[in-house]
Amino acid sequence: MQNVIAIDGPAASGKSSVARLLAGRLGWNFVNSGALYRAYAWACLKAGVPPEEESQVAEAAVSWDVTCGIEDGRSWVAVAGARLESELDAGATNAAVSLVARVPQVRALVVGQLRGFAEQGGLVMEGRDIGTVVFPGTPWKFYIDASAEVRQQRRAAQGLDDRVSERDRVDSSRKAAPLSVAEGALVIDSSEMSVEEVVDRVLGHVGGALGTPAREENV
Ligand code: CDP
Question: Is residue 163 included in any domain, yes or no?
């Protein structure tokens, strides 16, 4: 397995921006694991399966042709061979994704796909359970948080229709792999930090271990 930096945290905490910039600085691949759950949610809606019907989702999910890969250092996802882009952030997908992601059969399919990325080079992966379930063995685990108010503002500033507190409630209370701080993870509250500051903090933590000089930790 290649080097993996796991970044978890609640909705709109800034972890995607942090993970993308971090991967760019390191020259590693960036994977947004939420995009895979979003692809399953989109496939669920397309198949006409009600996302709240757990047993129907569990039974049908294996037949949804969800694939993923790396191109130009970033992950892509496709359903039935067609890449998804704006569909992933659509209001209907936002409303369905946490319901679909709580189904253990969906999680098992996604976790298998996510682990495959570690064979393809150094990896920065962000999500909800990367440090706890997907790569519990990695020494580099981070939990990026921000106040509920800041997170709602950040999502609204992106112009997206997304009830982040409702997704957080479902993500934190589900039985399968609930959002939680992984053992040994460094918690960073990004409420009053820029993306660059958070990335510097992460690099300051892992830099020495990567063979590059550890940077000054600035928080
Ligand atoms: O960008 P944001 O954090 O708002 O969401 P995302 O990373 O695109 O994840 C969308 C949803 O997928 C989350 O609300 C979770 O329900 C689910 N998810 C998960 O269960 N486990 C992951 N590792 C990543 C996402």
Answer: yes
DSSP 8-state class, residue 175: S
Q: Per residue in 48-64, pLDDT tens?
A: 999 999 999 999 999 99
Closest CA to 189 of 143, 146, 128: 146
CB 34 within 8 A of CB 97: yes
Task: Assign residue 12 the CATH number of its domain.
Answer: 3.40.50.300
pLDDT tens readout for residues 16-54: 999 999 999 999 999 999 999 999 999 999 999 999 999
For the packed helices 33-46 and 104-116, what is the interaxial angle rounded to 10 degrees? Answer: 130
Whole-number Å distance between alpha carbons of 100 and 176: 12
Residue 81 Cα to ligand 1 middle (Å): 22
CA of 4 to the centre of ligand 1 (A): 18
Instruction: Give ligand 1 pocket residues (Cβ under 6 A).
Output: 11-12, 16, 33-34, 37-38, 97-98, 101, 127-130, 167, 171
DSSP 126: E
Does residue 211 lie in a domain region?
A: no
Total of domains in the chain: 1
Q: Report d(CA 170, CA 173) in Å as an integer.
A: 5
Which atom of ligand 1 sits closest to the CA of residue 155?
4
